[in-house]
Amino acid sequence: MSGHSKWATIKHKKGAQDKARGKLFAKLIRQVEVAAREGGGDINSNATLRTMFTKAREASVPLDTIERAIKRGTGELEGVRYEAINYEGYASGGVAVIVECLTDNRNRTGADVRSLFSKNGGSMAEPGAVSWQFSRKGVISVDRAANEDELTLAALEAGAEDVNDLGDQWQVVCAPGDLAEVKAGLEESGFSCASADLVMLPNASIELTDENEARKVLKLIDALEDNDDVQNVYANFDIPDAILEAVSV
């Protein structure tokens, strides 16, 4: 299991996402807008927009706010034009990091991301230097109360590739293009899906057994995620539960 996934779960428990509600809304709205611009405003024919729309609604973003974002993306309404840009780098311990951004000023964003890496014990890398260590996947989170065998059977029948144990949740993994279909299949089988998203999953993880090193990695991840232009941060670290609990205090 990805240590980054476990860390995100712990932060959610501690209410970090609630504190950043306004910032989360802004990031989701940007994602909806860019998805509409790149693939059109019809959620039935634009799978990425459909995923972003669902994600925004699950986060309680008002429907009219989402609709205005779609119209800005399709050009029906004027607005700031955002572009997607990814950065790659390394955190302490050689941990690979991918930073996905949506920005209206790539020079500003690039400088900010580089500064965050430098200030938090990391370093930027050339494009492609670490991305080969990740694969784009559809990921669905299912309530832990679900029976593992029944969930696995339903997931595989719906077209999923794997089911992972995240401690408090089950993680169902599928091909990016199958996300909507697998989620619908799980719900038809009676399972409650907490979230469904397109993410970059590490092909292998680096285990961090030193508490100080783990703190450095998590500090960098948190600093990057706190930047307004950063949409997602992916990293290939894994931290043993005992150390994760210690650094989460």
CATH homology group of the largest domain: YebC, transcriptional regulation domain
Mean pLDDT: 88
Relative strand content: 15-25%
Strand order of the largest sheet: 3-1-2-9
Order of helices and strands: HHHHHEEHEEHEEHEEHEEH
Give the helices and strands, then pairings.
Layout: H1 3-13, H2 16-19, H3 21-39, H4 47-58, H5 63-74, E1 83-90, E2 96-103, H6 106-119, E3 123-125, E4 134-143, H7 148-158, E5 162-165, E6 169-174, H8 179-188, E7 193-202, E8 206-207, H9 211-225, E9 230-235, E10 237-238, H10 241-247
Parallel strand pairs: 8-10
Antiparallel strand pairs: 1-2, 1-3, 2-9, 4-6, 4-7, 5-6
Helix pairs in contact: 3-4, 3-5, 7-8
Overview of this structure, please?
The protein is of the alpha+beta class and 249 residues long. 46% of the residues lie in helices and 24% in strands. The strands form 3 sheets. Strands 3-1-2-9 form a 4-stranded antiparallel beta sheet. Strand 1 (83-90) and strand 2 form a beta hairpin. The two termini are 21 Å apart.
